[in-house]
Amino acid sequence: MTAKPVQQLRIHGREETQVRVIPESVDGPSEDENPYWLGEDGDAALPTPEQGCIQRGLCCKSSPGWYAPGEVEKAAELLGIAPDVLVRSKLVVDRIEVDGQIVHVFAPVKLDRFGKPAFAPGKVVDELYRMLKGTCVFFDGKGCGIYAARPLECARYLCSQPAERNLSHHELAQMWLQGQ
Ligand code: SF4
């Protein structure tokens, strides 16, 4: 497969971040699995979907959600910083293959056990980063520090419901492809 030209992700109408379209397939973790309850005390500890989010923060301490188009700007506005500053300081660019095309998507940085970014912000991350469980840079210990401008995947995610009812990375990537 022939590599396509550089793909540009648009922020506030300007090309702030350039990432290359990579031709090879990229396998991410299975979306059929829910890793967030690993290490819990067994099924008795699980909430029901009817309870909604009970704010244990397990997903925020494991795998931050992906942004939909237009949301990086909203998060930057909430934080009072420019979108490109947000990207370079707190976000990474993840990727997924959709219909043979690599799509790049913004996501919050994961922190390592020392509270430092596990991978450099503002960069495209690889499969190792995707597999790593790490606390979201926006998690403040009690909840989401950017709740009003959290990523769409976070807003739509409920750990206790079947995976197919949550927004998938594939669906989010299609939003980026369609520029929604
Ligand atoms: S952005 Fe907010 S809701 Fe999403 S993982 Fe980070 S702390 Fe949790």
- Coarse structural class: alpha+beta
Tell me, briefly, the overall form.
globular
**Mean of residue pLDDT?**
79
Give the DSSP E fraction (strand runs of 2 or more residues).
15-25%
Count the helices. How many? 5
Q: What is the spatial order of strands in the main beta sheet?
A: 1-2
Q: Give the fraction of residues assigned to helices.
A: 10-25%
Task: Please outline the major beta sheet.
Answer: 2 strands, antiparallel
Order of helices and strands: EEHHEEEHEHH
Residue runs with pLDDT of under 50 for 5 or more positions: 1-41
Total number of β-strand segments?
A: 6
Number of domains: 1
Which ligands are bound?
A: iron/sulfur cluster
Radius of gyration, CA atoms, in whole angstroms: 16 Å
Distance between the termini: 27 Å
Task: Report what the structure shows.
The protein is α+β, with helices and mostly antiparallel strands and 180 residues long. It starts with 6 loop residues before the first strand and ends with a helix. The chain contains five helices and six strands, in the order ββααβββαβαα. Helix 1 crosses helix 2 (83-90). The chain has one domain. Bound molecules: iron/sulfur cluster. Iron/sulfur cluster (SF4) is lined by residues 60, 64-65, 108, 136, 138-139, 144, 146, 150-151, 154.
Search tags:
disordered N terminus; two-stranded antiparallel ribbon; 180 residues; 5 helices; two-stranded antiparallel sheet; 17% strand; single chain; alpha+beta; binds iron/sulfur cluster; globular
